[in-house]
Structure formats: structure tokens, C-alpha cells
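Re: the 602-residue chain
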Amino acid sequence: MCGIIGYIGEADAVPIIVEGLKRLEYRGYDSAGIAVYNSGAFGVVKRKGRIAELEASLENANIFGKLGIGHTRWATHGEPNDANSHPHLGEKSRIAVVHNGIIENYKEIKGWLQEKGVKFASQTDSEVVAQLCEHHYDGDLMQAVIKVANILEGSYALGIMCLDEPDILMAIKKDNPLIVGISDDGNFIASDVPAILPHTTKVHYLNDKEIAILTKDDVKFYNMDSETIHREAETITWTMEGAEKGGYPHFMLKEIMEQPRVIKETIKNTLMDGANKNAIDSLDISHFNKVVITACGSACYAGIVGKYVFERLCRISVEVEFASEFRYKDPIVDDKTLVIVVSQSGETADTIGAMREAKKRGATTFAIVNAVGSTIAREADFTAYTAAGPEIAVASTKAFSAQLVLLYILAIRFAQKLGKIDDIKTAELIDEINALPEKATQVLEHTDYIQKYAAGSINSKSVFFIGRNVDYAISFEGSLKLKEISYIHSEAYAGGELKHGTIALIEEGVLVVAISCCPSLYGKIFSNVEQVISRGARVLFVSTEDTKEDDKLSLIKLPPVHELFSPSLSVIVLQLFSYYVAANKGLDIDKPRNLAKSVTVE
């Protein structure tokens, strides 16, 4: 949520910052702004709406400079408007700040400053940071920032400039992601890698309450006692191509099409010697009597699929918890519990909080993340990485598929260690896993029918996804995708529960998406299909079985696949269906309303 980009160097900061903001659009925002130091003053332009409006205003603003900060805001305190947009200045316009996160004690700070006569220009919590920095500034920006950081409660990633110290850009973070990029042409701060990828692949991931001081030629790191910290830069393996559309109309479609490669690379990285295999091999699963999978959104739905696979193969009790609920439900975990945390960004606030709560209670944590160097990756006891690369569209596709396949392999290896499956069965299951990329490719070769069916579904008012066993588990993700990008109400239901209430909602013309990839349950789910058809529904049937089509039932047949791993194929159909519904409605697919890619605040 929100995006930060900052630059100090020899080039004009304005085009660099604007381009960086564009590369952070996927995080979600409702306004954007930029502040640049030039000739003893800050040039500031802030606009509600898309970055295109900011660009239009910059054309007439005539601002330039070699030090600047930019921001895309997702409103939390104060409505989306120009005044509430970032950057924010102190009352004397000596300090400029961009902020991601939430300052929980901003009302107390604001009241205290107002008593001292400070006048505020916005309704945001973020402005208090600029005003407080200016209040405490006495010629040493780092000391002012340390004082401010000791006062602030909540989460923050901050980029800070000061008129009296125009040769530095300062950054600090707590519970919100912020990276520092190093290049020969200047140095950067940013919320995420894509913002600076055109300029550098060398980055530092800031830890909480670490201070970075950037000059055009150098970067130094300090702790809250003003002591120097030595940091080693990490090299990003993503490519520019991974963060570009590559000729596709939307990032989401590109990322759907990348899934065979992503699945293949995640399998390779996990089965061959390396960090993933070492993490899995190092964990003694026999020590635990329970597994808890916790995550948010799509990652949690990957966890629900994982629950079915783990329990079937490992014969161990598995619970799946939304991280936002896990934190506050007094969870029953202890030193005999393995907590698996799943996150694409590794910076999801609720998932970080859940992981820390689990560790506090003595649990062992195993992270599945996409971002090397992220908070979750650093703090978990064990970490395995997906090979999704940059995922720009807000609605997760390839990251979800990578999480699924890593959970499959984790379950197989744990079952083998526990003696629940022998080496022959293990090899059979691994062969099934290795076949997934080619089968995913086969699914993607037949998109025309899905596209055509989606075009006839754009006027649906409500869509129901049904399945049993793992088919029910993947229905959650199918329903979420449709809601996220098409704004059509949808729900996922266990097929056997229809007659316990939900079937009352079925009437003429309602669309039901039924998933059937468990051969032993085909008759059961098809009975549910017949029940909804008899009440007027039309059905999109996604199955590995041949099924006769008619005017009420349309079949999308999947390649033969082990039922436990079938969600990796059925989800592609569900993603494409949602994508083409949204495309036919002419919606902003990559940046759906009200949503952010990385939810870094509660």
C-alpha cells in the first residue's frame, strides 16, 4: 500500500521519480506527489488521482533538481485530495517527508504541536512526522529523526529531506518495507524493487529502526544510538523484462501466461540442492504435533489447498488461519507447533504480526515468500522462496501458483520423513509435480473457449463456485479473483453444503462454476450440478472427466492430473475466466479499485 521513491545523484530527479512512481502503481493509490530540492527551496507538486494528472501538472511547474522524493498515497487518514497527498512539509517548509504506514499516536502528537502554535495543512497522520522533525531539528537531521522515531507509535517507512542539509537523503523504517538502491549514477530509496530496477540491481533491505543516509556517492547506515552499521548489498535477480508488460494488454494476463515457467523454476529450486532444499531438509517435522498455516488473501487460500495435501499425505493435523485473525484470537500454539507463513511480498503487516506472535509462543516458523531479504524471510526460523519474480498486477496469479507447488513439495518431503509414504510413492508424487509445467502449458493453449464463455457472463450479478475436497479449496481463490477484478459478487461453497441453505439463492440465469478434479467425488459434485441446473442455473464445469455439454452446462476439460495437485491447473482456468470477464467490462484489471498489492498496514 502506498509507494515511496527517492533519488539523490547527478541527474534530474523529476523524471526518475515519476518513472519510479509509475512502477509502484500496482501497490494501489489514489493520489501522487513529488518534492524536489532546488536553489534553497522545495518544489512540490501533489495531485489527487492518477500519476497522469501529476505529470500534467509537472509540465507547467518547471521544477527540477538532483535530490527528490515521490509518493503514491492510498488514503487512510483524510480523504483523497491534493492537500492530503504526499510529500508533506513542516510549517516552515524546511523539511519534506514521504510516509508509508500508520502513525497510531498522531492525534496526541498533533494536539501537542498545535498547542505550541504549529499550523497543519492536511488531515493526515503523516504530516505530524514532518512537523515533528522540523520542531526537533537543530542542525543535525539524523538526531532529529532519532528523536521523532522514539516518539512515533505505529508503522512507518520514511523518506526525509532538509533544506539545511541538501546533500543528503535520509530514510528509516519500522514495520513497513523500504529498500536502498546503489548505483554509479546516484542512490535511491524505494518501497519495492520495480521502482529502481531500471537503474540498479544492488539493494539493501532496511531493518526496523535502521537509518540510511544517502549522498550522491555513498550510503551509510546507523542504529538508533548513531552507531555505524555495516551492511552488505544484495543483488536482485529479477530482470527488467519481468517488470514490463512484454506486449500483453495487462500485467495480469502476462503473469497468468508465465505460470508454467514459474512453476517449473520453483520446482527446480526446491528439489535441487540449494536454499529451499536445505531449509526443508533441516526441519525435523517429527518434532511437531500440529501445523498451522497462516496468511492473507490468496496466500491463505493456497494454505487451504495445502491443508488438504498435508493432511492426506502426512496424516498430521493442519489448521489454516487468516493472519489478521490469528494475531488476536489467543492462538493455541506452542513449541510443538510448526507455523507456516505464506506471503508474496514478505512484508504483509498481518502476516508479520502473526509470525511474531507464533514465535513469541514458542512455535517454529517456516516462511514461503517471493522476496529475498523481506521482513518475513529474515525473521522466520526457516525460509523457502518461490520463483515468481516480480508480480505487478494486484490480483495474484503466478505467485499463488508458485506457493501451491512449494506447499505440495513440502508436504511430500514431510510425509517421507514421517514414514507415511515410502520412496516409491515419493518418486511417483514428484513425477506428478514435475509434469505440472507442461500440463499448465496445455491449459493455456486453449483460452479461446474460456474467453468466449467469459464474454457471455459479464452481466452476472452473483457467481457461485462449488467443489469438494481440494476442488472446494481452490474455489476460494476462483471466487476471490472474480471479486477482485470484475467487481461481481461471488462466493465459494462446499458442494455438499448447497442444500443446507445456499441453494435458496439459485434462480434462473445464475452462474455456477463447478470444479471436479477428484475422480472419486465426480458423482457427488455432478449431483450438485444437476441440482442447481434444475433450479435454472447455468454451469461452467471445470473437470478432468468427460462430461456431456448442453445449453445449461459448458465443459472445460483439464489434462489428467493427480487430484491433490489439480488446483494448479483448475486455478488457471479460474484466473483466465475472471480476467476475461473484467476485460470485457473494460475495467482497470491491473489496478482494481480500493485494493493494494502489498497490504503493509492493518
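The mean pLDDT is 92.
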